[in-house]
Amino acid sequence: MDGCVLDLADGVPRPTGEDGAPDTLEVLAMAPAHLISITDDHCEAPVSMWASTDPPGDLEFVAATLFGDSSPENVARLTNGHAVMAVFTRGEGTVFNAGSANWCYGLGADPLVERITRNVVARLG
Question: Which regions of the chain does DSSP assign to beta strands (E)?
Answer without folding.
Answer: 6-9, 12-15, 26-33, 81-90, 93-97
